[in-house]
Amino acid sequence: MSEVYPSQADSEKDLIDTELKKLETELQTFDLLLPQLLETNRGDWVLIKKTELGGLFPEQRDALNTGYEKYGLEGFLVQQVLEEQPTYLIGYSEAA
Fold it and tell me: Sheet holding 45-49: strands in order across?
Protein backbone atom coordinates (compact mmCIF):
# COMPACT_ATOMS: atom_id res chain seq x y z
CA MET A 1 0.00 0.00 0.00
CA SER A 2 1.40 3.39 -0.94
CA GLU A 3 1.37 6.38 1.36
CA VAL A 4 -0.32 9.61 0.37
CA TYR A 5 1.74 12.78 0.76
CA PRO A 6 0.53 16.36 0.42
CA SER A 7 1.35 17.78 -2.97
CA GLN A 8 4.26 20.18 -3.32
CA ALA A 9 1.75 22.91 -4.15
CA ASP A 10 -0.06 22.39 -0.83
CA SER A 11 3.24 22.50 1.07
CA GLU A 12 4.28 25.70 -0.69
CA LYS A 13 0.88 27.30 -0.06
CA ASP A 14 1.16 26.47 3.65
CA LEU A 15 4.65 27.98 3.75
CA ILE A 16 3.47 31.16 2.01
CA ASP A 17 0.48 31.45 4.36
CA THR A 18 2.78 31.05 7.37
CA GLU A 19 5.18 33.72 6.11
CA LEU A 20 2.35 36.14 5.30
CA LYS A 21 0.96 35.74 8.83
CA LYS A 22 4.36 36.84 10.18
CA LEU A 23 3.97 40.08 8.21
CA GLU A 24 0.30 40.64 9.03
CA THR A 25 0.95 43.85 11.01
CA GLU A 26 3.18 45.25 8.26
CA LEU A 27 0.61 44.42 5.57
CA GLN A 28 -2.15 46.11 7.57
CA THR A 29 0.06 49.18 8.04
CA PHE A 30 0.74 49.26 4.29
CA ASP A 31 -3.00 49.07 3.55
CA LEU A 32 -3.67 51.97 5.93
CA LEU A 33 -0.92 54.13 4.39
CA LEU A 34 -1.63 53.21 0.77
CA PRO A 35 -4.19 55.92 -0.13
CA GLN A 36 -1.86 58.71 0.99
CA LEU A 37 1.21 57.03 -0.53
CA LEU A 38 -0.54 56.71 -3.89
CA GLU A 39 -0.99 60.49 -3.95
CA THR A 40 2.58 61.33 -2.97
CA ASN A 41 4.85 58.38 -3.74
CA ARG A 42 3.26 56.23 -6.46
CA GLY A 43 5.79 53.75 -7.83
CA ASP A 44 8.25 54.15 -4.94
CA TRP A 45 9.16 51.32 -2.57
CA VAL A 46 8.11 51.48 1.07
CA LEU A 47 9.89 49.87 4.01
CA ILE A 48 7.68 48.93 6.97
CA LYS A 49 8.53 47.24 10.28
CA LYS A 50 5.46 46.51 12.43
CA THR A 51 3.62 49.88 12.34
CA GLU A 52 6.74 51.97 11.61
CA LEU A 53 7.32 53.50 8.20
CA GLY A 54 11.03 52.86 7.77
CA GLY A 55 11.36 54.91 4.61
CA LEU A 56 10.44 55.47 0.97
CA PHE A 57 12.84 54.62 -1.83
CA PRO A 58 12.90 54.95 -5.62
CA GLU A 59 14.55 51.50 -5.98
CA GLN A 60 13.64 48.18 -4.37
CA ARG A 61 17.29 47.34 -3.63
CA ASP A 62 17.66 50.56 -1.62
CA ALA A 63 14.62 49.67 0.50
CA LEU A 64 15.94 46.13 1.06
CA ASN A 65 19.45 47.31 1.95
CA THR A 66 18.06 49.83 4.43
CA GLY A 67 15.77 47.18 5.90
CA TYR A 68 18.69 44.82 6.51
CA GLU A 69 20.79 47.65 7.97
CA LYS A 70 18.00 48.79 10.34
CA TYR A 71 16.37 45.47 11.24
CA GLY A 72 18.89 42.76 10.43
CA LEU A 73 17.28 39.42 9.69
CA GLU A 74 14.08 40.30 11.55
CA GLY A 75 11.04 40.37 9.30
CA PHE A 76 10.12 43.59 7.54
CA LEU A 77 8.04 44.48 4.50
CA VAL A 78 9.27 46.07 1.29
CA GLN A 79 6.38 46.80 -1.05
CA GLN A 80 5.97 48.94 -4.13
CA VAL A 81 3.35 51.68 -3.93
CA LEU A 82 0.86 50.63 -6.62
CA GLU A 83 -2.93 50.58 -6.77
CA GLU A 84 -2.95 46.87 -7.55
CA GLN A 85 -0.27 44.62 -6.14
CA PRO A 86 1.14 42.12 -8.63
CA THR A 87 0.90 38.41 -7.94
CA TYR A 88 3.99 36.42 -8.73
CA LEU A 89 3.58 32.79 -9.68
CA ILE A 90 6.72 30.70 -9.60
CA GLY A 91 6.38 27.51 -11.58
CA TYR A 92 7.82 24.17 -10.64
CA SER A 93 7.86 20.77 -12.21
CA GLU A 94 6.34 17.91 -10.27
CA ALA A 95 7.88 14.49 -10.83
CA ALA A 96 5.49 12.05 -12.49
Answer: 52-57, 45-49, 77-80
